[in-house]
Write the structure tokens for this entry.
Amino acid sequence: MAGRFIISKDEEGGFRFALVANNGQTLAVGEGFPTKVACVNGIETVRRNAPEAVIDDQSEQSA
């Protein structure tokens, strides 16, 4: 099994998701969403885009 998405309510009454690995480590946290439907849509967006995502390493850029 490849981890799971956990949906929770935040302090403002909105919804957030976290992507959690099998070992319990939180890998990513989504922004706050006003509705659960919007939160699930955010999860689906991550699912669609993450397999194709490239690494954009900007850590060496000068300020």
Remarks:
- The mean pLDDT is 91.
- The chain is about 20% helix and 25% strand.
